[in-house]
Each structure stands twice: as C-alpha cells, then as structure tokens.
Amino acid sequence: MDAPGTFARKHSVQGAKWNPAYHAQLQKYVANINYLTGHAYAFARFILLHEVDIDNSIIFKQFGYSFFYDVFLYCAEREDEREARNEDALARRTVILSYRDKYVDLSKLKLRKYQPLSAVANYVAKSMLTAYKNNVLLRFGETWRRAVNLKLDTKSKTVDLVDKLTHEGKSKPYIREQCQVQIWTPARHAKEVLRSRRPVATTADEQTVISFITPVLNCYPVGYEFKGDDIYWDCKASPEHHVKAFIMLNQCLVAGDSSCIQALPLRRSWVYAHVPINTMILANHIFEEKYCPVTDKQPAVSPDKPAALAYKPAVSSDEPGMPADKPDVLSDKPRKLKKPPKRYTEEEYWARVVDLKLRSFKDHMCHKFNGYIMTDGVSITVVRKNKEMLATKAAKAADLKRKRKEQAQEQPSAQRARLVVQPPMPSQQQPPILSQQQPPIQSQQQPPIQSQQQPPIQSQQQPPIQPQQQPLMPSQQLPLMPSQQLPPMPSQQLPPMPSQQLPPMPSQQLPPMLSHLPPMPSQHILTPLQQPPMLIPLQQQPPMPSQHMPMSQQSPMPSMTSQQEQQPWMQVVQQAQEAWHAWQACLSVEQAWHVWQEWLLAQPAQPPAQQAQLPAQNTKKRRPAQPRQKAECQYIDELSQATLQSTAGRCVLIDPGRRDLLFAMHEDSSIEDKQLYRYMRNQQRKETRVTRFKKILKKVKPVDIAAAERSLGAGSCVKPDLVLFKEYLKARAQVADKLTRFYNETHTEHPTSTHQIHMFKTSEPQSFPLHRKLRLSAYINQKQADQRLIKKLQDEFGPNAVIVIGDWSAPMNRFHEPIRGKGWRMLLKRAGFEVYLIKEYLTSKTCPNCYGQLSNTRYVPNPRPFRHTKRPMVKCHGLLGCQSQKCLESIGKIEDDKECESEGEKKEKVQRWWNRDLAAVLNFRHILFSLRETGFAPTRFQRKQPTEAPKAPRVVSGMCPSYTDYSAVPHGPYSSGAQKIPSMRPPLVCRTFNNPTIESAIRDISSSIKDPDWQQLFSNIFPNTLDTTVAWHNSSAPFTFLVTGDITAQWIRDSSNQVLPYLPYTATDSALSMLVLGLINMQAEELDAYPFGNAFQPPTRSGLKPTQNGIGVNLNVFPKFDNKAVFEAKFEIDSFASFFQVSSSYWRATRDARFIYNEAWESAVSKILDIIVLLQQPTYNGRVLNKPVVGYTRLTSEAKETQFGSGLGNPVKYTGMVRTLFRPSDDATILPFLVPANAFLCVELEHLSNMLKILRVFPDIRDKAMKLASQIRSGINKHGVAMHATHGKVFAYEVDGYGSVLLTDDANGPSLLSMPYLGFVNASHPVYQNTRNMVLSFEDNPWYFDGSYIRGLGSPHTSYLKVWPMAVAMRGMTSDNSEEVKECLDMILASTSGLGLIHESVSVSDGKDYTRSWFAWGNTFVSQFVVDAITRFPGII
Q1: Is 1194 exposed, middle or buried (0-12, 13-18, 19+ CB in 10 A)?
Q2: Which of 61, 134, 1021, 1106 has its CA 20 to 30 A from that of 1400?
Q3: d(CA 1307, CA 1415)
Q4: 0.70 exceeded by the pTM?
C-alpha cells in the first residue's frame, strides 16, 4: 500500500509537553486567529452580498484564493500598506477596502495590529475557499432541481392527483403511473432542458421554468460555456464559477416563499477551532521574535559546539531569556518583534516548546515532522508528512525561487513597478479601480537575439510594418524557430513574395483558435512581407489588436548542436515559405485559414504552449491528463482470478449503514452456523460518551446564554439577504463577547493530575476549558472505540480476514448522521486488513433467495414522539418484504402478519421479511462467488446499459449483393496452388461483423499452413459466419440473430455450432464475447416463447422482415405457433442440446455467467427440462394412450417431411431416453429414440448441471438436469446398443424400446460417428470402434457412398450418392491416424467445385453437382477441423 501524504497524531497540550512559559502566548494566538477567522467569513459574506447585484463584478471575476487572503488580512490593521503586484490585485483590494468601514461599523470589528499574519492568512484562505467549493459541489445541483420542482409545484400537484384518483378507487400502481406521466416525467424533462447554457423550451412548463431561472443564468459572464454543455457537470468541475449563481438561485427560492440552503458559509460556532502553527508562526506569535532560520551561508552554531535539542522546560516565567510578563489575550498592543540571539534550525525552534523525543515528533517509516501542528489551545495535532512529498515540494520551491531570481536580475529595476492600494475617499462610496493618471504596467522589451550564422537583420532597410497591412493571425499558431541554430538563408535564394497584401481579417471572421496544435517553440516567427521573407524577432512584431485572439507564451526548445538536427528545421522553413505563398494567393479569408491550418497540421507534434486565458469563458487551467491513480481501496471485481481464489474462505462481507454502522458476515456463514457481527450506532454513542457530554453541556449553559443565542436567529444568517445579514451582524456584535467568554473560559471543575501539577511547577490545581476539553475527550473516546472494534473483528473473523465492504455512503440528512465510508476503509486498512470495495447496486433491494424485488411495506409506530400527531405510523426502513411463492414455500409456513398500513387496513399479501442489511451481505456473497467462478457479477446487480436503436439488416444492403449470388461465382485473387482457390470473402464494407481478433487469428493460423490452397480456403471459411450471417446484433443488450446461410432464419442447432470456433477468442475480445452472449440471449428468448421450434424468424425490433416458409401450407402442428416468430416447428431434441452446449461452452471459455440471470434463460431451461420429462414417458399408459406432448403432420409428397401416427411418431416404450420427431437433418425419424441425439443431450445436461453447481445457483434445475442425464445414459447403454452380424456390438441409430433398431448413420450431426466429438465416449471405446467400422462401410451402411470424386456419409435429406463434406471432416476429427486425416483434408479441398467454400453435399462422381453454395455451418465446422488437424499433426498441410 502506498504511504499517504500526511499522517496526524493528536495530543493534549500537556501530553505534547508544551513549555508552560509559552502557554499564555499559545492561548493568545488561538484566540486572536479564531477572532479574525470568524470575522473573515462574515466580511467575505458581506462583500459578496453587496457585489452579487453588480454586473461584471471584480470580486466574482477574481473569486478565489487571493480574495479570501485579502479579506482575512483586511480584518486586521497593518502599519505598512501592502503593495499590489498587478492591476487585478489593485482592483480587488480597492473594492475590499471600500467595504471595510461599513462592516466595522456593523460588526464592531476591532482593527488591531498583530504580528505578521501572512502564513496564517495562507491557511485560512485555503480553508475558506474549500468551504465555498464544497458547498457548491454538494448543494448546487440539489438546489437547482428544487427550484424546478418549486416552480412547477410538483408536490401539491402530486397530492391533488393522488387524492383524486384514490377517491375514484384507482389502484396504487395506476396512481403511480399517472403521477409519473402527468407530473414527474415533465418535471424531469424540464430539468434536462435546464442543463444547457442556453436552454430551449418545447412546452409551456419548460418555458415557465426557464423564465424563473433566467436571472440565475444571467449571472454567468457573457461567453461562459458549461463544460460538456451541462451545468451539473460544470459545477463539479469548476465550483468557484458558480458561487454567484448559487446566491441568486437561493434568492429566487426565498422570493418564492421556499426554504433555502446556506449559499455562503459562515462560522457560527463560538468554541475556538484548531489553528495552524508552522515554524514561522511559532517564531512570530509564540516567541515574538523575527523568523531567522538557518541558511546554507549562515550555520546555526560552530562545528565544535553543536546545539542541544533536549527539552528543558522553564522553572518559572522570571527566568532569563523568557518573557518578563504575559500579555493579555486580544491585547491591543502586541509586543514588538525582537531580534533572536542567533539563527535557529527548525528543530531548535520546536525544541524550545515541545519535547522532540516524543514518539509523535519522531520519524515514522516514510513520514517526517516538518514543523507544522494544529491546535485549539487544549489539544495539539502533530502533522507528519511524506518524505518524498516534502523533497519534491522543496525542489519545486527552490526551482521557482531560482527562476524568480533570474527574472529579477534580467528585468530592469525601473520596470518593476508596483501598485499601492489607496484608502477609500470619503466623498465616494467606491473609488475608480484605476486612475486615469496612473501609468500602465510596462512590459519587458528585450533586444532580438541574432544568430551567429545569419547576418543581422537591417531594420532600417525595411519599410515600417503597418498593422493594417499585415494579416491578422494568432501568433501562437505560427511556427517558431530557434534563432541561434538557424542555417544561413540568403534572401536572394528565396523566391520573392507577391507584392499584393492581403486585407486585414475582421475579428468576427476569425475561425476558432487552433489551441490543440503544438507551436514550434522559439523566439522568431515567419512573416509575409513585400520583401523576400526573413525571420523577424517576436518582440519587433506590431502589437496584435485586442479584439483578436491573444498571444500565448512559447516554450523554449532544446538547443540543436549538430547539422543533422538542424536539417528537419530547414525543411520546415522551406515548407513554411511555400505555405505563405499559398496563403497569400488565396481569394478568401476562409481559404487562407484552410491552407494555413493544413500546414500546421502537417508539422510534428511539440509540447503545447500555455494558453492565454480568455475573458468571459471557462478557461480554468488544468493539469495535463495523468494515468488514473488507484483509489484508496480496489474494487473486488477488478481483482485477478488468482487473487480472488486466494481470498476463498477468508472474506468478511460488511454493509455500512446508519443505525447498523457495520453489519458483518463471514462468507462461510450459514443458518446453522451464523458468523455475524453488528456494530450499532447506540453502541458507538455509549462508548464515545457523546450523549453524556451533551447532557453536561446542556446543564452548564445559563439562561442568559441560551437567550443570547436565540437572539441571533437562524434564518437571518441562512437567507442570502443583505438586510437580514446586517441585522444579524448587529445582533452578533452585542452578544459576541458574552458568548466567546462562556464557550472558551468555562473551565472544568476537576483539578489536574499530580503529573500535570508537577509539570506546570505550581501548587495550584489547574482546569481546562470545558467545551474544548470535551471535544478532545470525544475524539480520544472515538479512537478507543475504533480500536475495540478492530479487536472485536479480529476475534470474530481472525487477523487474516479479507474485508469486502460496500461502497455506498450518504451525507448528513435530517435526523441522520452521515454514513462513514472512507473513514471505515482507512481504519480497517491501517489495522492490517485487506480491504476491497464491492458495488452495492440493488443488493439491498433484491431477495437473496428468489432474486425477486424486495419492497418496503411494513408500517411501525413513529419512533419520534414529537411527530406522532402528524405521522403516527411510518414505514420500517430496516425490514423489506418478498411476496414470491418461492420465498413463502422456503419458510415452510404462512406468516400471520397483522401490521397495519397508514389507513389502518390489514395487509392483503403474506410476505417473507428480510433484514435490509442481511439481504445486502447475502447478495454480496452471491457477487463474490460469481466473481470467483465467472469473473463477472450476476446480471441482476449490474447497471442496465441504454439499449441501442433498432439497426437495419446488414446482410444485404444497397451497395452489397446477396451473398447467395456472390458465393456462386469465384472471385479473385486466386491461390497459387493446384486448386486455384478463389478469394470468397465479401468486401470489407459488406461484411456483417468485423473483428480484429479473428483477423489476427486468420493470419496466425494461415502462417502454420504450408499449402497455399489451404491457406486461401481457410481464410475463406473460418470467418464466414462473421462475414455473412450476423443479420442483427445489439451489443448493449446484447442480442444476436445469426442466419444459417441462404435462408434468413436462425436454426438453434446451426447457429450454436457456427460460433463454436470463435469461443477460444471470447475471453480476450469483448466485442466477440458480446456477439456470442447475444446469441445465447436470443436463443433463450426464442425457446422460452416456443420451445418446440427448431428455426425462428428475426425479432420485430431487429428491423428484419420475416421469411415466408413455403412448407407451412397444409401444416398441422401442436402446440400451435406464430409463423411470424417461428420459421419451422420440427421438434428436434438436438436443438435443446445445442442451446445447452453454447451456454456452457461460452461460460467455460469466458467465465461470464450473465446469461444465467436472464429471466428468459432460466425460464427456457425450466420449460425444456419439463418437456424432456414428458417425452421420456411411453406412448401407452397401460392400455390408455398418454396425453400427446408434440405432433407434426403436413401434406407432402415425401415421407421424410411428416410423421407417422397423426404426427406423434411410432410408439415407444420407456427406456429413459427422450423421443424426438425429427433428425438433425430435419428429416422425420423412423424410430423415435434417436440415439446420437440422446447422447448429445446427455452430455450437455451434465455440463449444465456442473456449471450450475459451480455457480451455486438454481439448485432445483441443477439436480433435475443431472438426474435426467443419468437416466438417458442408462437408457442408451441398455437399449441403444445392438448386435451386428459383422461388427458385433454397435450403437444403433434409432430404437423404440420394443426391440426394433435402425443400424445406419446420417451425415448431419449429432451422428454415431461424432460420439467421441460430443464427449459421450472415448474414440477408443470398443463399441464405438465397432460402430465406426459399420458406419464407414459401403457394405453395411446404406448411406455411405464411395465414388471417384469423394467418399463418405450422405443423408436422406440430399438423396442418394451425395456426400457431405461436414461428415468427412467429422471422420477426420475422430481419427488418430494421420494418413486418414490427410485423406479427409484432401477430399474436402477437392470438393469446393472451384468456389472456395464448403457445400452442403457434393456428388461422388461430379464436383460441379452440389447443394448450397453458401452453408455457413459447414464452413466453420471444416475450419474447426483444420485447426484440430494442424494442432495434432503439425505440417500435415
């Protein structure tokens, strides 16, 4: 962990062993600075309320640190008048001084002479500016929205509408919806309109709000623009620019009889606050000496006599060297600073008042005491700073001092003029800022630096430069040249410039300043003249008119010493001359700027010059972009998998809150073994004794003090009203002395300890200021309570626990203290715990059991007695209810809840009640486990991204031909091999999904292939799915619709297999992972709507037109389906398996389980498992026909297109397997138990169950899937194996459970040949080897064909004597023989028919006889085979 910048440790004054001889000076200093600081806040408010109505106010233009610095110093009287270094300071101080007499008369401020206050003013100014900024940051946006609600009267409108609809008997959801439509949405739109600097109204309400807010918008300077054109963004980025608008906004609220927010911070506490003491303040105010530190030239002591730093408290105040008397607090006559007897080091200064041997003052690790403390006279906070930070700061200060010294030496003393602030004249309220007789500030004039290689420029030979003759261009955009490195450039070698001069460019015609263009830093610029162009010094250029763009300072360029380094600049000079000629030849101003910008854009990038600040614009200087630094705690979802796994069993999940400050639960906690710890606010109050201290303070407060406080009033100092504030100042002046004495001179009654009496060297017992003493005691008690909390956490969860704490925190609200966020995290980190943040989005609103939404509907008696009359019943914040049936079943009983609502009615629904904090930490555990297993948080806890607008189909566009036609014709270039494979990828603009990761993979894999024909073919087929079939993709939802090729429909089986080759790349490519994730979501949505379909139409939101399926005529299918959503309803169980396959495969590749928490996915899986159970049942239940589940018949001339038995198929007997109506080839089954499809389903059910087991979700689905997989596997082993006369035991292709078997195989997968590829058996399994021999036998398999062109499996789908290249690839993937694999590769290469793509089927004797030139699944599957072959057998092709 990186060391923090500062480290503070608090003591009492006695604990720090403060020297008693300087105790009085310390109390005097604390009283004086608190007195001045309180008046500085009030004086600043007084000035700002006067200036808020003045247009172009100097104060608001210069609002910042300098303003508060001057305000603080003008609360005191100085012997010397301070000098202003520039006109801005003079103007600002003149305005401040003009208000001082008025403020003194009202507030009775005593203008005293103090010791030097510059060091104190620096701290106070920074703290005041921070207070104003934080006030705008926290409250401006809220107040802006409140003003809109006030003007639109949303509160009363809502109440009236609710009463009206309730009286009409409308339901609560309807009432909420109407409030949303009629009131809340228009108000939200009005707030969105008011974000802009120049809002444009579209409705009457918006016009009303704009007219109400217009005075506030007019507060900003003319030309000021909001950052991002968003006022909410700009008030966070530049809060100091919105102070005046914040004041005006509160004035608008007050005018509308609404409560306002404190727009101008004011110190209202009378208890002395902590004030700073550094070494200079210590010398001037405590020792009352001039600050004379040791410098390098003046050592403190001689080397032979080192100074002793031991702490030696004085015996009494009468000792030599100590002050003879103790000045009174707030003395009008401060002691004159005396010269110290010698120069002191920083350590010697502090050794005179504190004991530097104390632990707090010693170096600790990387922190060092740097002579800085904070004190209120009772406690002392010792600040130690990071040594590296101190060293960097010292180096910067030394460098700045050196630069200033060099500038002072170079600048003549006559030009270093200063401006003196004149006191206000009695006859005028406010004098003019600048007198007409006052001379302006003289700018420095330096002679031009002449190059040693270039002859000096003879200015007398040149005509005088007239401003109207020179084109007006911003000088910061001109290229500059280092004068001393310029090569000689004789003027006669340069082409003459045209004598015609360009007209001057009016300011309104100037294009925007090219601030992003880097200038070439130097001291000269190129200028077009009537003479040949020469280099003219920048100082000799005529002044740029003020209405044009200002000049910026140029950065010096590193010197060039070699001719090689000079050469690029010579080329720049030559290009500049050409650019100037072109610039002068332009006919218009716009053309001239275009030429000049083109030349500037062509120059090499250099560090940008410092931009000149434009008036009336938001030009706040910002630091250059830096790499994002780590937060104080890292988020748990940003950790690597290795780190997440290392925290297993050690994580403690903590939810911070208001009443339960910390609700902690161990990740291994269970109902039986609860490992919980709650740290309550009441417990904290008891340990810190805050309540007891409040009672003490209330007891000691006299009646007259309470009356004095009431006389000040609360509203007079909150409302931004000048009249009320003047009254407040008068009332404050009358009671200030009384309240100050009470709050700072009321002492404790108990005496000091013996140690303290001995330390003060007095026999009189001492006491302490009560209020400051209790404040210190509360702080100490808080620290002790924190240490007890740490000890308790270590005892409960172990010292090696990993803290995972919620990131939610809230500021102080009415009746509630702020939630401690960063404070808890830093406390736990300092205690040695590993601390990580976790996003709390929806964690306390989601049921940890059923993942439904929790609602807050329980009413309890109002815990605040003083509000019982108005609201006797309130909602219980800590209890949330879940009404889902799943939760009610899990508790095992129906609860009798008799709590009443506000109207006294009983609740209608029984709910399961959750403690809000318990629900949050349980959901934390869900997130933690999901991150470990998947790398992602569950989808229900992720913020929803805005959905994209529907996109037009990208398969066919106006410029791109249909790929069906494109794939039927070869395209060049061709490969250099014997096959001359064409290039069949569509043009880049016509590809449906471009992905650089896949392009890189194509290059990498192709480099491993030696055969040029295979290189070209692989480049065609591997990206074919992405190039041609992504018909619609919404990356934000995400959803993806993949067509199978020449049909605009999505097959579940085909689309799943089409993306499998890309899964290895999804872990590192987010765009590719979103594509696959979108496909899973799309399939889930389709199967959830109609689980019996095998192909689906594109969704309506995609913008794609549905395809008319010709076979839908004379079709009888049950359950019924919508042909606008379902393309084909042939029930195939391999569609279920394919859906499970792509889901589990994607999860294994990416560990992204977001799809699981998609409601459609869970619903689709549940429906599929229920259907599987139904389809396991036999056809007959005894002598009765079981209720049909699915059926399909149609009027056709081919038997393979319809089913037997009125669409139910042949009868079956129970085997454990699942019956199906159609094969993967979309042909009807003969016997309903398709063995390879059941094997595929069995494997994917096992994968599904294992995935859900690891993710610890959906236990019912997990167990049911594993049970079904076991039943199917048992059924295949028992009923799916038959005895072949030649090959012995083989897997049958189809069975019915009655003993009928079909011994064959089909080319389409899943097939018997693919069973090792599916994962059901190993390739060496004896039954599979027998089956393989049977399948690949021309004699024993009727659908195996052997010809002169190709041999392999065919299918009834494509009739006789046609082999599927996919089946040839499957043969190669399931073979361990390299020769057989090489043979399969050669046959596939020869089967492309010269088109460079894989066809569905090819004739065994004629390569030109094929089906489907565009078959995306076949292309990607063969590419998968190629990758597998070159991996197992390198160099095979």
Answers
A1: middle
A2: 1106
A3: 15
A4: no
